[in-house]
Amino acid sequence: MQYAVLSDIHGNLEALTAVADALKAEGISRVLCLGDIVGYGADPSACLERIQGMGAPIVCGNHEAGCIGRLSLDWFHDAAKAALEWTRDQLSFGELDTLRRMPMIETTDAFTLVHASPRHPERFTYLFDAAHAAEALSHCRTPICLVGHTHIPWFVAWDKSRRALLHVAAEPAALENATWDAKDPNARVLINPGSVGQPRDGDPRASFAVVDPEAGTCSIRRVVYAISAAQEKIRRAGLPAILADRLAVGR
After folding, report:
1. DSSP string, 3-19
2. pTM for the complete prediction?
3. Which superfamily is assigned to 3-248 in CATH?
């Protein structure tokens, strides 16, 4: 059974639409969302509505937390702060209430969903290296831990009993077909699907993951979207220019 994992959409409706079209073409209807639906981009309401329409469980990202006062705006750099102040003004009371009801962490039989790290999810710690990934997995009670936040796709496999790293994949070719032994009760994996709406790995295409927990497979997918249209909306909204410019370079 395949699941699409989306994270860090950041108000980029053009990117989200391209991803949704790709999922429809592949017949993938089960969607999991790791937060940061809003922030940076010019379509926060439309992106929130689209994700809710997919029936996806959603966890709270730092940008949702900033919008509702759960996280101080002083935590953010100036461009992000300006975008969050603008975003908060665009959202209705009902939409803000939806953000308030998002859990920090969500679990199913197979998955732990969290925006940053399962250890102290409210701190929004960035997981950039294998040591931090292993530490995060040691706090995870499910076989698969899904995280976002860094905007960079990543796959880590870890052996719970030996507390040993088995495999780390960060290069595009390796991420297209990452696998693990799903029948091994000690196998744990951490998957970051990258960012739908603001990739930062040098590839401007929207990024998401397709995961099959029973087969033990993960594939990071990339799709082209109308970057210039998303940029024009950001500029028309009067948001910081860097938020539009960076979309073209994936940084």
Report:
1. EEEE---TT-HHHHHHH
2. 0.95
3. Metallo-dependent phosphatases (3.60.21.10)
